[in-house]
């Protein structure tokens, strides 16, 4: 029952922040409510509520010419992508 609560809270907070710092955005959304769904998707892309995720491989993993050793703590940084 609790899955997604923090992510949803952060999404709403990030979207409200984006609307506050970009006043023209709220004007566009009020003028055309059909843009709200796209605004939510863009907020997820640009201001991701989850910035990264830790993982521990259970075997050696080759990645881009480097090997991540078994049991090494790794973090995938979602915040490092989708900034086009």
Q: Which key phrases capture this entry?
A:
single chain, 84 residues, alpha+beta, two-stranded antiparallel sheet, 3 helices
Q: How many beta-strand runs?
A: 4
Mean pLDDT: 88
Oligomer: single chain
Structural class: alpha+beta
Poorly predicted residue ranges? none
Span between N and C termini?
34 Å
Helix content: 40-55%
Strand numbers in spatial order across the main sheet? 1-4
Global shape: elongated
Instruction: Give the strand content.
Output: 15-25%
Largest sheet: 2 strands, antiparallel
Give helix and strand order, one letter per element, not per position: HHHEEEE
Radius of gyration: 18 Å
- What's the tally of helices? 3
Provide a compact summary of the structure.
With 84 residues, the protein is α+β, with helices and mostly antiparallel strands.
Could you characterize the architecture of this molecule?
This protein has 84 residues and is α+β, with helices and mostly antiparallel strands. Helices cover 44% and strands 17% of the residues. The chain has helices at residues 5-21, 23-31, 36-46, and strands at 52-55, 61-63, 66-68, 74-77. α1 (5-21) packs across α3 (36-46). The longest helix has 17 residues, at 5-21. The mean pLDDT is 88.
């Amino acid at each position: 029952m609790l899955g997604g609560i923090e992510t949803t809270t952060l999404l709403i907070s990030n979207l409200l922040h984006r609307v506050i710092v970009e006043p023209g955005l709220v004007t566009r959304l009020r003028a055309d409510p059909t843009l709200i769904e796209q605004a939510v998707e863009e907020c997820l892309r640009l201001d991701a509520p989850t910035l990264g995720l830790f993982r521990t491989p259970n075997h050696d993993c080759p990645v881009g010419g480097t090997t991540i050793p078994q049991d090494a703590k790794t973090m995938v940084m979602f915040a490092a992508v989708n900034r086009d």
